[in-house]
Structure of SDR family oxidoreductase:
Amino acid sequence: MATITDLSGRVAVVTGGTRGVGAGITRALLKAGAEVVTCARRPADGPVEAAGRSARFLPVDLRDADAVGAFFARVRGEYGGLDVLVNNAGGTPYRMLEEDGAERHCRVVELNLLAPLTASLAAYEQMRTRPGGGSIVMIGSVSGSRPSPGSAAYGAAKAGLEQLARSMAVEWAPEVRVNTLVLGMVRTELSHLHYGDDDGVAAVGRTVPLGRLADPAEVGDACVFLASERAAYISGASLLVHGGGERPAYLDAATAGT
């Protein structure tokens, strides 16, 4: 089936692109025709595939600036350059601020903010000389715009990531476009760790106006759009992919006694 966005001939890197949301993004880019390279510290159990094609996996610790530089140099050497970077790698354990020292929380910020900065700087050096420039997509979170108890450092990092993307979009225009996908809750193979069994996931989904959690494929489709010529005049934007957000608590409180 033909797609409205054709990325044939484009080279894309998806950090953390082997599992969960990242795998959904990788599959969407493959379906759109892109050559996709994924990276993470550890490989998945098997290759990420879609439309009869597979993504390439290369190991790298994104918190190691030298390793990141070597990774992007390898991509240039083997593929001739880079057109799309999706900064997806990130995450955090549930940890209240007082439960751990500052060093642990700093590592969360390092993974979710500084690593995307490092990767973007390396990607920019290739993209700025590519015909047509390039596209960088940050994977943000609603945690960056609301209180995030138990993941405060993560929320702070995601807020910073969105601001970083807006500044990059100004500094690197017109050669490179930079945008952020602001995600809500997404159903992945690890959802049970956060929301419990299927009934728990369904109950959490009912708090979303659209009545369910997002599918990784839907995040992938949004990434393909931002990476494509269909979004040629979109830069410095934050696209909300959260199913309408969260139902305000006061609405339920107001009807609780009726």
Helices lie at 20-31, 65-79, 102-127, 152-171, 191-195, 198-205, 216-227, 249-255.
